[in-house]
Amino acid sequence: MGWKEIELECGIKEGNSTFLLKNVLNCWSVCGERCLRGGHEFISDGSSMKRREFLQGAGSIAGFGLLSGCVRKLPVGASVPGLPFYDAVPPLVPIRAHEDRIFRITVCLRPFRAQGPRMDVERVGEKVVVHNYGHGGSGWSLSWGSSTIAVKNAMEAVAAGGGSKDVAVIGAGALGLTSASLLQRAGARVTIYAKEQAPFVRSSRATGSWTPDSRVAFASKVAAGFPALWEEMARTSWTMYQSYLGMSGNPIEYTDRYGLSDDEPQAARRESKEPVGADGTVLDFARYESRIADITPRSILLPPESNPFPTKIARRSTSLTFNVADYARQLTTDFLIAGGKIEVAEFHAPSELAALPQKVIINCTGYGARALWKDDSIVPVRGQIAWLIPQPEVNYGFYYHKLNVLGRRDGIVVQASEQGEASGWNDANETPDRGEADRAVQELAAMYARMGAMKTGKRASA
Ligand SMILES: Cc1cc2nc3c(=O)[nH]c(=O)nc-3n(C[C@H](O)[C@H](O)[C@H](O)COP(=O)(O)OP(=O)(O)OC[C@H]3O[C@@H](n4cnc5c(N)ncnc54)[C@H](O)[C@@H]3O)c2cc1C
Q1: What pTM was estimated for this model as a whole?
Q2: What pLDDT, in 10s, does the model give residues 282-300?
Q3: Residue 454's pLDDT band (boundaries 50, 70, 90)?
Q4: Pocket probe mutation, ligand 1, options 203, 214, 418, max atoms within 8 Å of Cβ
Q5: How far apart (Å, rounded) are the C-alpha atoms in residues 291 and 247?
Q6: Whose CA is nearest to atom 18 of ligand 1?
Q7: How far, in Å, CA of 149 to CA of 144, rounded?
Q8: Could you please report the per-residue DSSP string of 406-430?
Q9: From CA 357, how far away is CA 55, in angstroms rounded?
Q10: Residue with the nearest Cα to atom 28 of ligand 1?
Q11: Is residue 291 left, alpha or beta, with left meaning phi > 0 and alpha meaning psi from -120 to 50?
């Protein structure tokens, strides 16, 4: 069985879809959405390459999203021994996976809304409230784009209201800080009112990845225009994030991610079922990443000779990492340097906003909006991270067997999603689970043990 370079050509279909290749190996890992570009991919070649049929499957990994509707041309290349030297996988420093190196366990609630984030404008007494909350697992990723829209609406309200440039922002998480910063750039005088600031906001407990369509909505519940709105937000955010590269402290950087699987190629076929939450809800999470495949680096399937992992399949992509500790500090500092003010305040009902001196308010309260605005459309999606002591030389991440690992400057994220995408659905429990954290680190240790065994010449099986 050889490795062949093939040309791929893909069409786009929205929805929670993964397509599998009948009779051939690993379609799910071949048919990545980056193949939209018609670039070259490497696949392990079975015997019948002329006709392919695709079956719908489920699941996708951040940065390894999968695409429906792929049409593949005939193989065009010769056998490929490995990656070219200029694109080789660098030596990967292993993570020191010991439970006693967990220095923190955090729990965060994704503020999920089936219809996507709330971004409408509401009048509350004398105040104009621009909503900017409910971004699910995509709040950091979409923040600049979503806040750009919120600020446009707020500045229109400022202009319509006679011109006082004082604007309030409620909340100092990802959405509050970016809204406040963009308001300043638009010429407003801004005060943030918030119960908590970083590192105590929920945004500070995020994984720190570019995941713009992670649990952001249900495909079946969004308005017709939402996919295009999502795309606008994602593109705006992506562009803004590039301007944070290369800064001291590395608030934002690119790092490599690996999607790993032990599946036998023939067993790669997956069921087309959507995940189901513990309460029985069918979770048809929207998938939009293919809409922006032209701006993100494409992923490649590593040829076996270039796969440093003990798994049969490894797929590599390069994506943005948010080093949230430094990034949130930088956003806050920039806001203060530009004359912004932060006041500690807690609101219990919309009517309390009447006491604020500002007439225009952007509401960035995240999961807090559920209680403040009595918005039961927000569903909590719990997620826990075990933080291992940072190792500066660990500058990669991987997804393996429901384990999401990311080497960040401010800690190594080890996140177990024991029920896959259904993990944490409608669970508002923010108490850390030490057992879950330990199990995640033990699984990580087991993966490295297998990797160590490879060095003795054996590629261990799962
Ligand atoms: C485990 C996990 C991992 C994640 N990983 C990622 C990721 O890798 N990439 C990504 O893009 N997204 C990720 N997310 C999603 C992201 O964390 C959220 O979408 C984002 O944090 C929401 O930001 P926010 O500003 O709306 O809310 P928050 O960060 O919760 O901020 C809300 C602010 O409002 C204030 N507030 C709330 N209520 C009140 C009130 N009544 N009165 C006064 N102030 C109030 C709070 O004090 C706070 O300042 C993850 C989420 C989880 C749970």
Answers
A1: 0.85
A2: 999 999 999 999 999 999 9
A3: confident
A4: 203
A5: 29
A6: 139
A7: 9
A8: EEETTEEEEEE-TTGGGTTBT----
A9: 58
A10: 173
A11: alpha
The residue assigned the tokens 């519940």 is 221
Q: Any long-range contacts for 304-307 (C-beta under 8 Å, 24+ apart)?
A: 304/3, 305/81, 305/82, 306/82, 306/83, 306/88, 306/89, 307/89
| All residues at 6 or more sequence positions from 156 whose CB lies less than 8 Å from its CB, including other chains | none
pLDDT in tens, 396-450: 999 998 899 999 999 999 999 988 899 999 999 999 999 999 999 999 999 999 9
**How far is Cα 391 from Cα 91, in angstroms, rounded to an integer?**
14
- Taken in order 114, 117, 123, 127, the sign of the CA dihedral is positive
How many CB atoms are located within 10 Å of the residue 231 CB?
A: 16
Residues near 193 by Cβ (< 8 Å), separated by ≥ 6?
168, 169, 170, 343, 344, 345, 347, 356
